[in-house]
């Protein structure tokens, strides 16, 4: 109990769920508790993957851990997600994903049927993404300690010398492009989660983005300044991170955002903003305005990118801040959320 | 108070004596308690839903009228603006 | 979405804004008493676009913000009990109590679950007969019928492990308290469309007459709010002070009778302490004696709850419309959405959070 301190709950003494949400708490956790101890230039870039040079060849390395609940959802499961997520992190740095390792933590009591479906999905996803699973590990923990399955995948890819998208390369004058409709994955997860109990015609967009990245590279080459896949925290969080890394402002146009009807409807019901809902088969690309139409065309030539469109532009003003221009002529800030979006009644 | 959104009643049933229904919100469906609108509502009607309860039937005539009035108002303004602009 | 998207038409909105500017011969002060309306106003920048014609003061319309500190502390105590599954609407999870919030209680090992509907909480009780399930029944009159039904059904179905922690508040007494205040500047009100969907608007007629203020029952979409403002401005220009209904597609004068009936069978009017404002007599709802088994306050011994609001938090002044969020010394510095000092910064409907998330740009540019 505090009586005199005017800031009673500024510091949480323990980890909270919000620290894993991809918002400000997550960023603070990494910045304050991890970076100072692991200090090095490569990590400090905080890109989707680390770039290291080995005998004149650039390698990209990325790791991701998957703890999604429920394990199976419309459009995929934790297995396909585990492959797509890491493959995409490599692709966002311009690398061709080549090899994956997978570490499994299995909960005692997990049904083999579920495990088989998850592993089959991983194998299918890996084959489609043309990556080889070359190393693995499995541990089993007691009932109650692992929510069914946790999966970590680490990926290694080869980056060509002439293609190096990075968050800091975004510049004023760049167009902001998304490769497809936003908000599908997060809403698909919500529909499968108990407690909110609604049905929606929404499936996860979980997919490997390598073909889209290749299409962009072929058409526009190194004019692709930045690529990022907006996973947890949604498009808004990703754009905030890029704006901060590059020291630029971003202006979005509300009427350009591609939000599918059922995603919009589910968001209305829960009081969510689609800009903060997770995606798993979507990329945002920053390309100079002069090449933006070509970039959109390149994306649309592939089934995954059929709905690709411009959603905004980069500016010199308000560096680090993302703003949205509404249809009525108003403007508002699209900030990073502190933690997870919570359904509301108000 | 707040988050109440309009949805279309798709189906009506009874759960242990409580009137319930399935409501469609632009492609999302949810079970909704219809106890407070039971005598006025049938499949195909629209209702405002708050925390899983239908709290009113949307009066479609009134809704249409409001919108027409508003639209007319904005069109009049457009004409006036155009008059201001013409030299 | 039908009956939603049409009321966001930008062209019509611009037309309405022009019409309001034309109608107002001076700067009127209006208050909306509803968090959802605050959200729309700030999200669309409506108050900015209308600044010369109308000053919008954001009232205590977010039940999350006005939930008394004692009730939050009781919620935290209940949620910390090992035998309790504590259920709540999502908005309440980050509201700070004297010591922490529900999310931190969850981190410490408490079982806290978000539900969309009170009936989902009841269902959870039926599925978990070995646990006590407590539902945090907050809200204005809009949510009371849903919460009442959960209690009613629990009794009807003989559920033995379900109870509610009630913190309902009602709008008219708060409006009167604001109007009685010597520092009141508000000249007209937008009444909450969904509160009135349940209650009708008869309670507002004596208020409009006594205090000579126009009260327009208004919806939540941009066009609703703009039309509501226009009707209020026209009344003020013409010297009228009546209750008018803008939200005709949902609100009727007598409201929803079956809903009102069930609420009065399960709940009764009690005095309530509004966070940041203070006690307002007969402005809240409590559980009637016949349903005592389902009242968490009577069911659990809640001892030793010491309530202490941080001194620097000016939530009360903000909720009364006396202080604009960005004039508060703690706004954006000590008090931000990541570490809120008071409820208006936590709730997405709170005036402070609304300003922080949507309004910072205007100050920056």
Report on this model:
The complex is a heterotrimer of chains A (346), B (87) and C (365). Chain A has helices at 24-34, 41-44, 78-92, 112-128, 184-192, 210-220, 234-246, 261-270, 289-300, and strands at residues 50-54, 57-66, 72-73, 76-77, 96-107, 132-141, 149-159, 174-178, 198-200, 226-228, 249-253, 284-288, 309-315, 322-325, 331-333. Chain A has 346 residues and is an alpha+beta fold. In chain A, strand 3 (72-73) and strand 4 (76-77) form a beta hairpin. The radius of gyration of chain A is 20 Å and the shape is globular. Chain B has a single domain, classed as SH3 type barrels, CATH 2.30.30. Chain B has one helix spanning 60-85, and strands at residues 4-15, 18-25, 28-33, 46-50, 53-57. Chain B has a five-stranded antiparallel sheet, with no helix packed on it. The model of chain B is unreliable at 81-87 (pLDDT under 50). Chain C has 17 helices and eleven strands. The mean pLDDT of chain C is 86. At the A-C interface, helix 1, helix 8 and strand 15 of A face helix 1, helix 2, helix 3, helix 6 and helix 17 of C.
The gist of it:
The complex is a heterotrimer of chains A (346), B (87) and C (365). By secondary structure, chain A is of the alpha+beta class.
């Amino acid at each position: 109990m505090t009586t005199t301190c005017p800031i009673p709950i500024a510091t949480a003494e323990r980890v909270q769920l919000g620290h894993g949400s991809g918002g400000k708490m997550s960023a603070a956790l990494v910045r304050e508790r991890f970076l100072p101890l692991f200090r090095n230039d490569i990590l400090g870039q905080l890109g989707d993957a680390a770039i290291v040079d080995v005998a004149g060849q650039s390698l990209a390395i990325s790791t991701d851990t998957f703890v999604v609940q429920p394990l199976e959802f419309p459009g995929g499961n934790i297995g396909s997600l585990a492959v797509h997520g890491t493959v995409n992190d490599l692709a966002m740095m311009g690398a061709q994903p080549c090899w994956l390792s997978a570490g499994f933590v299995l909960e005692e009591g997990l049904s083999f049927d579920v495990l088989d479906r998850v592993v089959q999905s991983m194998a299918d996803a890996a084959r489609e993404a043309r990556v080889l699973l070359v190393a693995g590990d499995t541990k089993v923990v007691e009932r109650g300690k692992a929510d069914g399955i946790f999966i970590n995948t680490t990926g290694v890819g080869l980056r060509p010398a002439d293609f190096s998208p990075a968050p800091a390369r975004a510049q004023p004058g760049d167009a902001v492009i998304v490769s497809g409709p936003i908000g599908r994955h997060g809403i698909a997860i919500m529909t499968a989660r108990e407690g909110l109990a609604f049905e929606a015609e929404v499936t996860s967009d979980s997919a490997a983005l390598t073909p889209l990245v290749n299409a962009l590279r072929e058409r526009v080459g190194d004019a692709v300044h930045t690529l990022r896949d907006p996973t947890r925290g949604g498009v808004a969080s990703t754009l905030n991170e890029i704006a901060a890394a590059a020291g630029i402002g971003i202006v979005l146009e509300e009427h350009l955002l591609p939000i599918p009807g059922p995603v919009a409807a589910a968001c209305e019901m829960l009081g969510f903003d689609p800009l903060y809902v997770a995606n798993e088969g979507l990329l945002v690309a920053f390309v100079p305005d002069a090449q933006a139409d070509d970039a959109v065309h390149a994306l649309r030539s592939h089934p995954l990118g059929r709905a690709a469109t411009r959603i905004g532009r980069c500016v010199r003003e308000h560096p680090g801040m993302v703003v949205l221009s509404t249809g009525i002529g108003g403007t508002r800030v699209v900030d990073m959320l502190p933690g997870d979006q919570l359904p509301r009644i108000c | 108070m707040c988050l109440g959104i309009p949805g279309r009643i798709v189906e009506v049933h009874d759960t242990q004596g409580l009137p319930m229904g399935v409501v469609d919100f632009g492609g999302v469906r949810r079970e909704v308690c219809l106890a407070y609108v039971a005598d006025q509502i049938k499949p195909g009607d629209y209702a405002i839903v708050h925390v899983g309860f239908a709290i009113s039937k949307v009066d479609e005539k009134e809704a249409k009228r409001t919108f027409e009035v508003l639209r007319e108002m904005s069109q009049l303004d457009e004409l006036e603006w155009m008059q201001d602009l013409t030299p | 979405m039908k009956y939603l998207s049409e009321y966001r038409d930008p062209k019509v909105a611009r037309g309405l804004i022009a019409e309001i500017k034309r109608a107002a011969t001076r700067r009127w002060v209006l208050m909306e008493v509803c968090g959802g309306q605050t959200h729309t106003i700030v999200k669309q920048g409506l108050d900015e676009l209308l600044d010369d014609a109308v000053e919008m003061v954001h009232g205590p319309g977010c039940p999350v913000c006005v939930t008394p500190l004692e009730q939050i502390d009781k919620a935290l105590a209940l949620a910390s009990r090992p035998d309790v599954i504590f259920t709540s609407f999502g908005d309440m999870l980050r509201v700070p109590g004297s010591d922490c919030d529900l999310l931190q209680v969850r981190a410490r090992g408490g079982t806290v679950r978000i539900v969309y509907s009170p009936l989902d909480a009841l269902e959870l009780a039926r599925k978990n007969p070995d646990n006590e399930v407590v539902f945090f029944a907050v809200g204005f009159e809009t949510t009371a019928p849903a919460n009442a039904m959960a209690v009613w059904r629990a009794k009807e179905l003989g559920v033995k492990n379900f109870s509610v922690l009630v913190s309902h508040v009602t709008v008219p007494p708060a409006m009167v308290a604001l109007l009685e205040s010597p520092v009141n500047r508000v000249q007209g009100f937008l009444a909450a469309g969904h509160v009135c969907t349940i209650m009708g608007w008869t309670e507002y007629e004596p208020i409009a007459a006594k205090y000579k203020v126009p009260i327009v029952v208004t919806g939540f979409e941009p066009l609703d709010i703009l039309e509501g403002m226009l009707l209020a401005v026209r009344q003020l220009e013409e010297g009228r002070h009546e209750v008018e209904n803008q939200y005709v597609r949902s609100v009727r004068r007598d409201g929803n009778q079956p809903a009102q009936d069930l609420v009065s069978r399960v709940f009764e009017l009690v005095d309530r302490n509004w966070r940041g404002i203070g006690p307002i007599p007969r402005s809240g709802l409590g559980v009637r004696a016949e349903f005592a088994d389902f009242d968490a306050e009577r069911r659990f011994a809640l001892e030793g709850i010491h309530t202490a609001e941080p001194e620097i938090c000016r939530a009360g002044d903000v909720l009364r419309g006396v202080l604009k969020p960005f004039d508060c010394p703690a706004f954006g510095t000590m008090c931000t959405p990541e570490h809120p000092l008071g409820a208006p910064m936590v709730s997405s409907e709170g005036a402070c959070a609304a300003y922080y998330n949507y309004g910072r740009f205007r100050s920056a540019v």
